[in-house]
Amino acid sequence: MKKSLILVLVLLIAATIFINGCQEKKIAFEFNSSVCGLSIGEINQSELGIKGIEWISKNKLEITALIRTNCAETVKNGDYEIDEDKITLYYQIEKCSTCATCLCPKYLTYKFINIPKKDYSFELKEI
Q: At 32, phi and psi to the nearest 5?
């Protein structure tokens, strides 16, 4: 009886270690948007889009992008979708009811923690 109880406990511990070791860690995500960057000057359409991709460590990734909105609009939130080796970065603009007559450049920052290090391709989309 004592031997079978010990065997059951050992098997339970081994199964727990195996299951926890095989589970993928959940990706943590942070999104930030800068305020209106009028001081950075005129921005050409070709300068917009993904500006930087930096692996901070083997599982931490930071991506910066540059967009242009109406000065009266704000960036509401950001999100992402990973499909194998492609990461689509989304941002949502809170549209203005009475827009201004100026355009405003803004930097978007997407931070990922516990993401597997790969050679991803990236796409930036407004939702």
A: -140, 150
Q: In terms of DSSP bridges, do strands 121-126 and 86-94 run parallel, antiparallel, or are they unpaired?
A: parallel
Number of domains forming the structure of the chain: 1
Helix (H) or strand (E) holding 3: helix 2-22
| Model pLDDT for residues 39-66, shown as the tens digit of each residue | 656 677 888 999 999 999 999 999 999 9
| Cβ neighbours around 50 below 10 Å, total | 15
Amino acid at 74: T
Spell out the alpha helix ranges (H) of 23-106. none
Q: How far is C-alpha 56 from the geometric centre of its chain's CA atoms?
A: 14
Instruction: Give the domain extent around 116.
Output: 26-126
Specify the residue for token string 């391709």: 121
Q: Is residue 87 one of the residues assigned to a domain?
A: yes
pTM, rounded to two decimals:
0.77
